[in-house]
């Protein structure tokens, strides 16, 4: 039984409780709790489509490296992002890590 717990990937990436999620959001400029679901979201606005697409490309490479992929949409210079960990049904440290990365590269 003990060895089975070590193999459980969800133990490496636990679901954040509401307090921890809200605390993390305070340090994530522009990110908010998504309405009606356990996710965080942000709207990024760039100078033009080329900058928005470049941002999405960089995030896609990081997301693939992390094996953690955003929900997002793009219309011209705007990128809407929602982050949640689907197999955990809520926000985890992976979502916070990816949100931090997005903020870092968007400035």
Task: Compile the SSE list and pairings.
Elements: H1 2-7, H2 18-26, E1 32-33, E2 40-45, H3 49-66, E3 71-75, E4 78-83, H4 93-106
Antiparallel strand pairs: 1-2, 2-4, 3-4
Helix pairs in contact: 3-4
User: Average pLDDT, to the nearest integer?
Assistant: 91
Question: Which radius of gyration do the C-alpha atoms yield?
Answer: 15 Å
Strands, count:
4
Write the H/E string, N to C: HHEEHEEH
Tell me the overall shape.
globular
Spell out the CATH superfamily: Transcriptional coactivator/pterin dehydratase
Distance between the termini: 47 Å
| Count of the separate structural domains | 1
Broad CATH class: Alpha Beta
Q: Can you describe what's shown?
A:
The structure is a single chain. The chain starts with a helix and ends with a helix. Mean pLDDT is 91; it is low at 1-6. The protein has one domain (13-106): Gyrase A, domain 2. It is built from 4 helices and 4 strands. The protein is of the alpha+beta class. Strands 1-2-4-3 form a 4-stranded antiparallel beta sheet, covered by helices on one side.
């Amino acid at each position: 039984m003990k060895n089975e717990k070590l193999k459980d990937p969800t133990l490496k990436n636990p679901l954040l409780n509401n307090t921890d999620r809200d605390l993390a959001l305070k340090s994530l400029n522009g990110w908010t709790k998504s309405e009606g679901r356990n996710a965080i979201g942000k709207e990024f606005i760039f100078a033009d489509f080329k900058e928005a697409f470049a941002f999405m490309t960089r995030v896609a490479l990081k997301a693939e490296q992390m094996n953690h992929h955003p929900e997002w949409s793009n219309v011209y210079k705007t990128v809407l992002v929602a982050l949640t960990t689907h197999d955990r049904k809520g926000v985890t440290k992976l979502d916070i890590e990816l949100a931090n990365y997005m903020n870092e590269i968007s400035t």
